[in-house]
Structures are given as structure tokens and as C-alpha cells.
Amino acid sequence: MIQDLCSRSQEVRFGQSSPASMLVISACLLAGFSSAFSSSVMAQTGTPSPANPSSDDIKQRERDLDAVRAQQKSAVELQERLKADIAAIGQNRAKLNQQLIDVAASVRDIETKIAEAEARLLPLDAREQEIRASLDSRRSEIVEVLAALQRAGRRTPPALLVRPENALQSLRTAILLGSVVPEMRVRAEKLVADLDELVGLRKSIAAERDRMAANRDSLKDDQTRLATLVDERQRQQSGIEKNMAVEAARAVELSHQVDTLQGLIAKMEQDLKSAAKAAATASRQGVPGALNGKPNLGALKDPGRLSPAIAFASAKGLLALPVNGTKIRDFGGSDGAGGAEKGISLAARPGAQVTTPCDGWVVYAGPFRSYGQLLILNAGGGYHVLIAGMERISVNIGQFVLTGEPVATMGSTSRVASILAANASQPVLYIEFRKDGTPIDPAPWWVVNKGQKVRG
């Protein structure tokens, strides 16, 4: 009905404007607003198309089908490349480790880019809605301006929010040609300014969303690649450690016999064969060599190493956080239960990749009390690193892991009881450093400049 009225309004001649034609223009403007918002809602809710689709609908479906086929072909090609890469790696542990570290770093870099894009979109989206609301609230005023344009140009102006670029061009042309009467000029120029900003915002938002979509595609490919590499690492590890499943079950059984983290560490390193072996190896390792009193960062370039490249005590200011996220609780702050925090908590993205901040031996990997999934690394020199709150851990007890190596993934919600009590909506990772069994402030170890962080 409104579309029919709009088409008829094109027949209105100069000097023939009437209350009826003003109503038609108002209806056209309303159609523009309604169409913009309804199309947005349909895109988000997936409203089904009519029973008799138009030729445009059919063409769009064909394009969508072609896109799905292209994605399927790309996935098959990726799997073939991954198989070839795994075959080329063979039993070369160093080569496998390096690929794990490199791909995990790529995953985390892309996660960061996506998070930054989302942050940039927030004010853009908010400003777009603000301008739309402003235009909507000035509808009667805008109808007057558009009516003047119709009388001058003998045609219906484009719908503002559906085609703001066309409406902007029409207004600019009218102002330049003097088609807008002086008393309307100020309001027309204000409308031009708003439409100009709206057009710019829509272009910026579209560009950000395109970049984000490309990054999400890249992230999906890298995550697939990383999962394949992790599976190969664990397959090779199972060939070395024949009783991994038995040891894992035994570890969970022993964890039920203790109530504290320190008790768990002691229990594992005393009573569990693989953890005891890892602890013994850690205690036998000497302090890694240093150059001019500084840690030898060159040792990190050996992906085949089986002991820490840098003494943990010497790694201050060099370690990267295990996951991309925002710190929500700090060491020494209130834990919400009358005590003090013994570590830090980071709010992360759902499904985020977790990597090791340092070299170390896995002495526990599994569920524990209110911590959810818990990973404990013996970093040597009496230091232990505890990481909790993941959905899935991908390493085994007794395994030696390198700085930056993928060890776990986050879930969709928090899994640490103390964080759940705080009603955190995001998944949260808890990190704690201990020296000789006592929690210590991890702040001195975290890298300040991202360019200085260490990687295996």
C-alpha cells in the first residue's frame, strides 16, 4: 500500500503540493524507516522468505549455495594440506613443537584482532543508532524539507534510512541549485550533516564487519590446524608414555584425598609415578646458562629442548599471559569471601586458546575441587604455575611443555566456583604462581611491552 502511494507521488507536479501529497511523502519516509529496521530484524532472526520467492531471492539463494560449496571445498583442501604437513613432520618432535607454538601464536593474534574490531564497532553502532533516533524524532520537520524538495524536483526523494547516500546527494544538489528556500536551508544543512555522518558510519561499520568476517574465517582455519597438530602431539606422547590413561585416572583418584592446592602438588609429586618423575627431573636440572647475568633468550629457539631454556626466577618481565583477556581480579585483592586473592583472574573470550607462559613439566592435569579443570606446571627452582578454569586440557601428566605451547581451551562460561559466585558472564582463567608452596605475586613476571615477551 505504502509503496503504491510512493509510486503515485512521483506524478505530483510543481506547484501542486497538497495536504494529501504531504501525507504521501510522510508515508514514504515512514516506509524508509520501517524497511531499514525490519530488514535488520529479518537478517538477525532469519525470518523465512515468501512462498513464491522473487528472482532476486532465487539469485541470492544460489549465491549462498555457491558460498557453502566453496567453504566445503576449502575445508577439504585444508584437511589434505594438514595430512601432508603431519606426514612431513613425522617423528620430528622439534618441528612439531615449533608448528604448535607458531599456530597457537597466530590463533591468539587473530583473537586479539577480532576483539579490537568488536571494541571499535561498539561506538560506531551506538552512534549510528543515535543518528537514526534523531532523524526519527525530527520526522515532521524532515517531511517539510522533503516536501520542498519534491516541489522543486518534481520527484519523490529517496527514503532516508534505506538509501541515505541517494538522499544525501539529492539534498546537496538541491542546496547548491538554490532549490531550498532560505527558511528551510538551515534545517536542510543539518539534515545533510546527519546523513553525511550516517553514510560514513555505515561504510566504516561495513568495513569493520568485513575485516572481522575475514579474521573469523582465518581463525577457524588456524583452530582446525592447531587441533590436528595437538592430536598428533598427544598421539606421539602416548607412544612414549604407555600408561597415560591409567596415570590420569590415578591422578583424579589421588586428588580426592586432598583439600588444598599445596596438598595436591605434594600428593602428585610423591605418589604419582609420572608426576614424581617430572618433579625429580626438574630438581636435577641446573640453572640454565646466562649471558652477562641476563637470561639467554637464544635458548628459546631450540624447540626440541627437554628442560627450561630460562630459569623461572630470571624470567621476570618476559612472560606473556596464558590467554587474551581482561584482568578482573588481582593478586592480594578481595576474593569476595573475606580473604585475599592468591592469583589473578582474566575474563576471556569463549573458546579462547590457552598457552603456557613458561617451560615446565605437567604434574597435574584434570578436575580439582572448585577450580574446575586445573593444570599445574613444575617450572623448576621450586616454582609452580597453576592455571584453572578451562573447559578442556590437551596435555598429560609428565609431559614437558614449552613457552607458548597450546595446552587448553576456554569454554563458554566460567568454571571456577569463586568466579561463578561473582556472576561473571564470560569464561574466566585463574593463574597462580607458587614458590616453595607459597603463593607469590605474579606481576613482576608479566611482560610490559608485548614485543619483549618470550616464545618457544
UniProtKB/TrEMBL annotation:
Ranges of residues in domain M23ase beta-sheet core: 341-442
According to the UniProt entry, which residue ranges have a biased composition of type Polar residues?
Answer: 41-55
Q: Which residues form a coiled coil?
A: 251-285
Query: Which cofactors must be present for this protein to function?
Result: Zn(2+)
* UniProt-listed GO biological process terms: proteolysis
The name of this protein is M23ase beta-sheet core domain-containing protein
- Which InterPro entries does the entry mention? Cell_wall_metabolism_enzyme (IPR050570), Dup_hybrid_motif (IPR011055), M23ase_b-sheet_dom (IPR016047)
Alphabetically ordered keywords of this record: Coiled coil, Hydrolase, Metal-binding, Metalloprotease, Protease, Signal, Zinc
Indicate yes or no for the key word Metal-binding: yes
Domain of life, per UniProt, equals Bacteria
| Region of interest (Disordered), residue spans | 41-63
Q: What range does the record give for the signal peptide?
A: 1-43
- Which GO MF term does the entry hold, naming one? metal ion binding
